[in-house]
Write a structure and sequence with these properties.
The chain contains 9 helices and no strands. With about 220 residues, the chain is an all-alpha fold. The longest helix is centred in the N-terminal third of the chain and has 38 residues. The radius of gyration is 24 Å and the shape is elongated. This is Secreted protein. It comes from Streptomyces bullii. Keywords: Membrane, Transmembrane, Transmembrane helix.
Length: about 220
């Protein structure tokens, strides 16, 4: 076989390999996007919105989160830890009526501490903690983001969120709290992802699970 024929065959094989690689990458693109969309749910849409509709950029960000935090294993809480967190959350809810700003700030601190206790990055690194939570609790992480934002804004005595906005943030944040505080096995092994306010401690609804923030008219609420 002549040198020219060998070179031609090498060129043809290289071209075939290149085309196959391009086709493989193209086929994996939509598949990865669908996989991330299923995993992150509403968090996927928020990422796309933050990137001004650029789905590819959003998918790169979400894929990086999975690479950094996907192997994280959540540490179970000891029964005494769980009871303490539940008692603090119930107290924050009860405090809301008279001191909504302080209650929201406590809810923000409590979620940070609870996530840290479960093995997520320390609450002192909020963005990293939030990213890790979004990988494992994507459907409820927005509640933490919202209560954190409201707590920071409400700390400004010259302005800040209104009482109703703070109340809504507390309600939304409670879903993530319930997911993080519940035992790994509860209610006979049934797990609904915390989307319907499932009970804690083997099906018994604890104060944190059954406690609701006060429903009051705006004129009755005290602005602190």
């Amino acid at each position: 076989m002549s040198t020219g024929v060998i070179i031609a065959l090498i060129v043809i094989v290289a071209a075939v390999v290149l085309v196959a690689a391009v086709l493989t990458l193209r086929s994996r693109g939509p598949q990865r996007g669908m996989s991330l969309k299923r995993r992150f749910g509403p968090e996927y849409d928020r990422a796309v919105a933050r990137h001004d509709g650029d789905a590819k950029a959003a998918e790169r960000e979400l894929a990086e989160r999975v690479e950094r935090h996907g192997d994280l294993r959540e540490r179970p809480l000891e029964p005494a830890e769980r009871e303490q967190f539940e008692a603090r959350w119930t107290a924050a809810q009860e405090r809301f009526v008279d001191s909504p700003r302080e209650a929201v700030a406590e809810a923000d601190r409590l979620l940070a501490e609870l996530a840290g206790a479960r093995g997520f990055p320390d609450g002192g690194h909020y963005e990293e903690q939030l990213a890790a939570l979004s990988v494992h609790h994507a459907h409820h992480v927005e509640g933490y983001r919202r209560v954190h934002r409201v707590a920071r804004v409400s700390g400004d005595q010259d302005g800040g969120a209104g009482t109703e906005e703070m109340r809504e943030a507390m309600v939304e944040a409670r879903a993530l709290f319930e997911e993080l505080v519940r035992p790994a096995h509860h209610d006979g092994g049934r797990h609904d992802g915390g989307r319907h306010g499932a009970g804690l401690n083997g099906g018994r609804r604890t104060p944190a699970a059954r406690g609701h923030l006060p429903v009051f008219h705006r004129r009755q609420a005290k602005e602190s």
